[in-house]
Amino acid sequence: MAIGEELRSGCFWRGVLAEALATLIFVGVVLGASAAPGALAPALAGGLVAGALACTLGAPQANPALTLALLCTRKLGAMRGAARLLAQCAGAVLASAAACLVLPEDAGLVTRVSVAGTAGQALAWETFATFQLALAAFATADWAAPQGGLTLGSAVAAGALAAGPFSGGSMNPARSLGPAIVTGIWDDHWVYWLGPVMGAVLAGLSYEFVFAPGASREKLGACLTCRDVALVETTSPSPSSPSARGPPVPPAERGQGTA
Q: I need a surface site. Which of 14, 31, 127, 246 has the fewest CB within 10 A?
């Protein structure tokens, strides 16, 4: 689809609006829970709201790391990907600004590297936590499981609890970007982009070209040579191919979970 047609498409703008709203809700809920002492409340709040959002608004990503993983696996077009990234960041900034107005100053909105740890440790935990989250997101989108919301919510909560003592358990660059812009605190901010993006992209590539039922060398070759992966999936007799599972879903329209 040409750029002009894309920009005139109502579906395009509905997707952008859904990403902005979903990210605003997700970040707002997590920041609100951050006012409570300890890491349990934000982890549970993030998991619960991620599970709810996965069943609404067309299953938005609400996470720049997941959106970049979709771009790298050629399941999302460049125009839609860029627009959704901007919408996610805008939603996170709006949520953070509102949180700063209503929450106490010591609410701990900014994700920080643990005082007892290092940036390297935080990077490793952010990468690992986001890897397992993205793996769950790709798998639930592929199988369209009815319990997808529970799966994604559990992955968000588990990752936040595991990485929380080391990095705050962000797993979402937008969740870290919003408070950083509003408060002006950028300490080790690169950790919260590099770690989640590496984890999500590695998970996406691993699932699509190794673990997915439709994984094949032809599919990997199509991705590496910038050919349409959907055409390769159509000719595959695997259970995950469109011919075996019903009408094909346009790659740009497939939700990939939340958080």
A: 246
Residue 147 DSSP one-character state: T
- pLDDT computed for residue 255 by the predictor: 61
* Interval 63-109: pLDDT, tens: 999 999 999 998 888 999 999 999 999 999 999 999 999 998 767 89
In the numeric block, the tokens 């769950």 are attached to 136
| Cα–Cα distances in angstroms (integers) from residue 187 to residues 90, 95, 115, 211, 240, in the given order | 21, 20, 12, 37, 43
pLDDT at 56: 87
Amino acid at 68: L
pLDDT(162) > 80: yes
Q: Tell me the two tokens of residue 125.
A: 């935990």
**Could you give the maximum distance between any two Cα atoms of the chain, in Å?**
57
User: Which residue in this structure is represented by tokens 């960041």?
Assistant: 89
Whole-number Cα distances in Å, 202 to 102, 198, 239? 38, 6, 23
Residue 146's SS3 state is: coil
Helices assigned H by DSSP within the chain: 3-7, 10-33, 40-54, 64-72, 78-102, 119-143, 148-167, 173-183, 191-206, 217-224, 229-234, 242-245
Higher pLDDT, 71 or 236: 71
pTM of structure:
0.85
